[in-house]
Write a structure and sequence with these properties.
Low-confidence stretches: none
Oligomer: single chain
CATH architecture of one domain: 3-Layer(aba) Sandwich
Radius of gyration: 19 Å
Largest sheet: 7 strands, mixed
CATH topology of one domain: Rossmann fold
Helix content: 25-40%
Distance between the termini: 22 Å
Order of helices and strands: HHHHEHEHEEHEHHEHHHE
Number of strands: 7
Strand order of the largest sheet: 3-2-1-4-5-7-6
Structural class: alpha/beta
Bound molecules: S-adenosylmethionine
Shape: globular
Length: 286
């Protein structure tokens, strides 16, 4: 792998987080799939386009982009070796030959310059220590006039899974799940922060559209609660608690989620910023 500056993220996504995303890939896709249509609409991929998928994970959106690009191609970049192994296996299994993957830190990876027509991301852009440098690196890889369609998690309060976790507050302090501006799920949750980072990186006509979409977190409240408590923020909450308290937490969260049960599924609403813009003629610098 080339240079990496986001070493804490490298460790996390090649450790527990990466393994978790591989094991629960279908669940995460069921959670995020309803963002795909708005993302692809905004990307406006044409036959023959070259697409870059940033923080591509298991490659669900890379494969969609490759299919839309027809005679073009899609390249997924991600820090995580285990998710890329899955991405490659699923892509080969689907018989897709115009999607490929590279392991690298999108903030600094030496991507071919002036190459891509469009860069997309489904929640893979919130983990940069220096978002402006990362977006400038992505801008350099786009051809002049190239487009971005990037999804970032929006305000924590607009995400029902987080509201459910916050309901545990009387039982244990849920604290902060990330601060806007520092790397993590909600680093770009503030609209102005996200728009300003992209504009500073050299993108023109930057816009942020609020997208709300429902995802399926399990078949019922108990399954969704167990899943939430083994994913990033939930796992963080349980760390250091004894098994008895962990069980109480699971029971409280299950009851909190019970009203959302609907016909054999547990849908919860998530909210993201769909960030669009174009690369100018000038070569971006960071
Ligand atoms: C929330 S997951 C989203 C994965 C995928 N886009 C999806 O929708 O399933 C975030 C992904 O971003 C990747 N990532 C985090 N920091 C990165 C960086 N600096 N460069 C490239 N990928 C990164 C992680 O390894 C992880 O796969």
């Amino acid at each position: 792998m080339h240079e990496v500056v986001n070493t804490a993220q490298l460790k996390a996504w090649n450790g527990y987080e990466g393994t978790h995303w591989v094991h629960h890939q279908d669940r995460w896709n069921a959670i995020n799939a309803n963002f795909d249509l708005p993302l692809l609409d905004a990307a406006a991929i044409q036959d023959g386009d070259r697409v870059l998928d940033v923080g591509c994970g298991g490659g669900a959106t890379t494969r969609l982009a490759a299919a839309t690009a027809g005679r073009g191609s899609a390249l997924g970049i991600d820090l995580s070796a285990p998710v890329l192994e899955l991405a490659r296996a699923r892509t080969a299994g689907a018989g897709i030959t115009n999607a490929s993957f590279v392991q690298g830190d999108a903030q600094v990876h030496a991507l071919d310059a002036d190459t891509f027509d469009v860069a997309i991301s489904r929640f893979g852009i919130m983990f940069f220590a220096d978002p402006v440098a990362a977006f400038a690196n992505i801008a350099r890889a786009l051809r002049p006039g190239g487009r971005i369609a990037l999804l970032a998690a929006a305000e924590p309060a607009e995400n029902e899974w987080l509201t459910a976790l916050r309901s545990l507050d009387p039982l244990l302090p849920t604290g902060d799940f990330g601060t806007p501006g520092s790397p993590g799920m909600f680093s770009l949750a503030d609209r102005d922060t996200a728009v300003s980072a992209l504009t500073s990186a050299g993108f023109l006509h930057v816009q942020a559209e609020c997208i709300r979409a429902y995802g399926i977190w399990g078949r019922n409240a108990a399954e969704a609660a167990a899943f939430l408590l083994c994913s990033g923020p939930g796992r963080h909450l349980l760390a250091g608690l004894g098994p008895g308290i962990q069980e109480s937490v699971r029971e409280v969260l299950t009851e909190q989620l019970r009203p959302y049960e609907n016909a054999g599924a547990l849908p919860l609403r998530s909210t993201g910023w769909l960030l669009t813009g174009t690369r100018g003629e000038r070569t971006p610098s960071d």
